[in-house]
Amino acid sequence: MNDNQNISFIMPAYNCADTIVESVESIFKDNFEQGDELIIIDDASTDKTLETIKSLQKKYPEIKTVSHNINKGSAAAGRNTGIDFSKNELIFCLDADNILAPNSIYPLKSHMLKNKAEVGAFGELRYFKKDKKEINHKWIFKKNQVELQDALTGYYWPGPSGNYLFTKKSWKISGRYEETLGGAYDSWAFGIKQLGAGFKIIILEDSFYYHRYGYDSTFIREENKVKASLVGLSVLIKFLPQINDSDIEYIMSSKHRYSWFENLEKKPIRLKNNKIGINGTLINYQAKKDTKDIIEPKYKKYLKSLKNFFK
Asked: What is the pLDDT of residues 80-117, one digit of tens each?
């Protein structure tokens, strides 16, 4: 791995003036180190997003901005643009409506580097609408690490969220983000490409970030604009030599070609070794108050030493 252990935070932004301040603050308040950078890519917003970004730059001069002249219509395009302009080897893509938990990045980076991994993700996503204290549901991921067979058993793995830590090396080797898929599918596809290229996703247990959902969330807004199974097939076709022959026939058949993706939990896709992976878990709440807005206690004692180590 490259000796550069600083992080380039990448934040695609489109018409997010109402949410971007909280997202940016969650980086700089407790998760930013000297040598890190935040690159915000404005995708030709039509609201006050660009004005808000300029205001944030006055407070945080470390922010760099890149603007698309035309709207490219996907977070993937912004992520690729941001990574192209980045100076650091470690990349964390944070959507402009999502929020990091305080003091959460240092333990994640340490865990990933300690395990000599190329990809590291928090152990869970906490979904909210307006107030991050009001958790609607959680995705809790498989412990330790996620591999390709795990991502082909369902949807509860870090890939679809798109908000995790990885090396620029893994981005290049995996072939960058697909910019034509839209919504959650470009993130899902990139995660599959990383796993298919042989990179495992190391999971940091008892850690999380806040993921906004609802009508204004990119994750939801684009969700139904493409045929999921066809998109999935267009990505998996590159990795067919790794997939079980009978499962290839299943997803290619006229009967299941348009439905295999939505039925992953009932009919997981197996690799050549016939091994079925492990899906994560969905936990629903009734607007439960979640006051644990800090890193888990067992990591607190490491924060000071970690910060000194990474200076």
From this structure: 999 999 999 999 999 999 999 999 999 999 999 999 99
User: Any residues with CB less than 8 A from the CB of 82 and at least 6 apart, and which?
Assistant: 8, 10, 11, 12, 39, 40, 41, 66, 93
How far apart are the C-alpha atoms of 278 and 37, rounded to whole Å?
35
pLDDT tens profile 219-238:
334 444 346 788 888 899 99
The conformation of residue 161, written as its DSSP 8-state character, comes to G
pTM of the model: 0.87
Is residue 279 within 8 A of residue 143, CB to CB? The reply is no
From first CA to last CA, the distance across the chain in angstroms is 18
Residue 34 CB contacts under 8 Å (≥ 6 apart), including other chains:
311
DSSP string, 96-133: TT-EEPTT-HHHHHHHHHHTT-SEEEEEEEEEESS-TT
As given in the structure block, the two tokens for residue 208 are 């999380």
Secondary structure (3-state) at 69 = coil
Least confident of 17-26, 238-247, 288-297: 288-297
Q: Which two tokens stand for residue 163?
A: 């908000």
The stretches of the chain forming alpha helices (DSSP H) are 20-30, 49-59, 75-85, 105-114, 148-151, 168-174, 183-196, 218-221, 228-236, 245-252, 297-309
